[in-house]
Amino acid sequence: FVLGIEADISGGDIGREDDFLLLGGVGTIRSRIDVFGTVRGRIGVAWDRLLLYATGGFAWARDKIDFTFAGVRISDDQTHAGWTIGAGLEYAFAPNWSAKLEYLYADFERRNYFASLIAGGIDLDARVHTVKFGINYHFGGPAAVVAAY
Question: Rounded to two decimals, what is the model's pTM?
């Protein structure tokens, strides 16, 4: 059995854009997560060079909202906290090297945007599904040979 802790940070362009009608004109609202990260526990079972594991813990994301109407654009960004859960497998293909494939689901808290401009603001939450492939280098390795005199 294997227990561990893992932290990661990822950049991206995860978003959605929608058009809307307002006062006879068309506007656009766009939400974009450009960075998110996790701090998670991992528990797994290893067979020779293969590790199968489950993972879960804390997640956070930075989301930016752009609102465009009649040539005017306003933006607001917030950091959302939340939780994540997932599973993966990792295979040691050479000494000190492994490859992993992992699925994570993250659910982020609701935050209020544009509260200083719009009465009541706009509430937004986010849920993200990710599939990650990674190559890992494991520091350490076989014990060093020490000459004894």
Answer: 0.79
